[in-house]
Amino acid sequence: MTANAQAYEGQYQGLKAVWLKSGPYEAAVLPEIGANLIAFRDTERGYAFLREPAADELQGFTERPMVHGIPVLFPPNRFEDGKFPWEGRVLELPVNETDRNNHLHGFLYNIPWQVDGFSADALGARAVFSVKVAEGDAVYARFPFAFTVRLEYTLNGEGLHQRVSVRNDGEGTMPCLLAFHTAVNAPFAPGSSTDDCTFKLTVGERWEMGADGRMLPTKRKLPLTEAEARMRDGTQSPFFESLDNHYTAVPQNGRNRMELTDNRTGVKLVYDVGTGYKQWMIWNDGAKGGYFCPEPQVNLVNAPNIALTAEEKEQAGLFALSPGEVWEETCRLYTIG
């Protein structure tokens, strides 16, 4: 049972928001900006778990809303020359990372989503958002597949639960390529510093990036360095070096997760992302401190442009949804301690 659960429409720094409140927790989602879950907080302890825009950063956030909160990337990350080969045809995506001549981050993170509903009861507060793409839509003109993405958030005493689904509404197969560019505060507790933070990430091997500087992987996988291996046992700082790396996901004890520990308070933030995410992208903005992005990703970066065998496609998370088929996965953010 959860006391005093609430779900309502309101404002977040002047932007339309759906607020969820339950026990010590509150969360806010911005439906008009990609259904970005922009805030997740423990109000009793003053913890802010996600990077939120300061008042003077708000314009920059609305223009480029991908390094705050939990943006939805579909299709995620980089595609070489904006090319996207699929089922015998080559799609042309806009090149929006011009210095590297890549398409970057897809089409859903900055457009309005529909608010399907929100409610609260003794089990918690919840809200559901969706975006439906069909022929004639602006997204369809750039990514010509008919589909629906549905995003449900539930807040209760066990933290924040996310459920996402992708449904193929078209008549042919479509790729299911999705990630979340989750921006986590490190530290999340007032009075703590970056030196108080260590983290765990369930990674296996690092994908080699091409030598041309375009941040596109080869098919080669590299063993972890000694410093990277410390991520797996939870003893590494999120800022041990500048990170813009792509890793295979290897669950530990059946779970695929990031854990961020504040060693001053003894509190651990757990981001359990589900085993449907075959890859981890991790980015820490040049190791500046303050926040980093552990990004659960279904697929290998640029996977459609890489010659892969059927087995390699499975490992890379590159797969098709048949007409009417649904892919679904869940994540959870919660604290221990």
TrEMBL record:
Gene Ontology terms for molecular function: carbohydrate binding; isomerase activity
Gene Ontology BP annotations: carbohydrate metabolic process
SUPFAM superfamilies on file: Galactose mutarotase-like (SSF74650)
Pfam families, per the entry: Aldose_epim
The protein's name in its UniProt record: Aldose 1-epimerase
